[in-house]
Amino acid sequence: MLRVFTENDVKKIQIDEGIVVFNLGQENEMIVGPTRGGAEMTITPEIRDIEFDGRRGKTAGMQVIDGEDATIKVVSLCCSQELLQKGLPNSVMDPTTKVITQGNFGVISKEKYLKTIDIITQMLDGTYKILTFNYGLHEGAFTYKAAPKAENEHNLEIIPHYTIDDSSKLYAIKDSETCPITVGQTGE
Q1: Which residue in 75, 80, 163 sits closest to 116, CA to CA?
Q2: pLDDT tens for each residue of the chain, 188 residues long
């Protein structure tokens, strides 16, 4: 008899939308929410085929990974100043008035990058899959839409980055028996 999948395969089905957290475990940790449409992440390798005489097509062992990029897409309904600023990497916010204004042009300081972006999802067996990305920055257009009988959808397309350090990595994916954050409780 042919087995298509095992009971363990079924237990590892990811359910629901997950949670997006900026700077998990840091003093400036921020849960992104509420969201619409969950979160989507894509990791894209840059694969180069080695051309050689007699090549019939793609050949195993004759390919090189030259690089890898990633993107994270999340649509938030939250319009807090802190979250809106994440969509404006050239902005500065006055700490007293919380007014966001355009910053100066030039090299983007390392402080503008989110140290980590975590997507926490739950499996059918009650465990968690945690996808962690490093040094993310929203590089797309900033859109703020006020429409009748609708909520603003603040689109973030965050691109993880390497650092100058050659040992830096874009991502890590791990399993966890527990959720690293408490959801649904406020500090009030």
Answers
A1: 163
A2: 676 778 778 888 888 888 999 999 999 999 998 999 989 999 999 999 999 999 999 999 999 999 999 999 999 999 999 999 999 999 999 999 999 999 999 999 999 999 999 999 999 999 999 999 999 999 999 998 888 898 989 899 999 999 988 789 999 999 999 999 876 654 44
Handedness of CA 121, 123, 126, 131 (dihedral sign): negative
Q: What is the pTM of this model?
A: 0.88
Chain mean position to CA 80: 19
66 vs 45, 62, 112, CA distance in Å?
8, 13, 27
CA distance 169 to 65: 14
* Distance from C-alpha of 149 to C-alpha of 139, rounded to nearest angstrom: 29
Distance CA 188, CA 166 (A): 43
How far is Cα 43 from Cα 131, in angstroms, rounded to an integer? 11
**Contact call for residues 20 and 31 (beta carbons, < 8 A):** yes
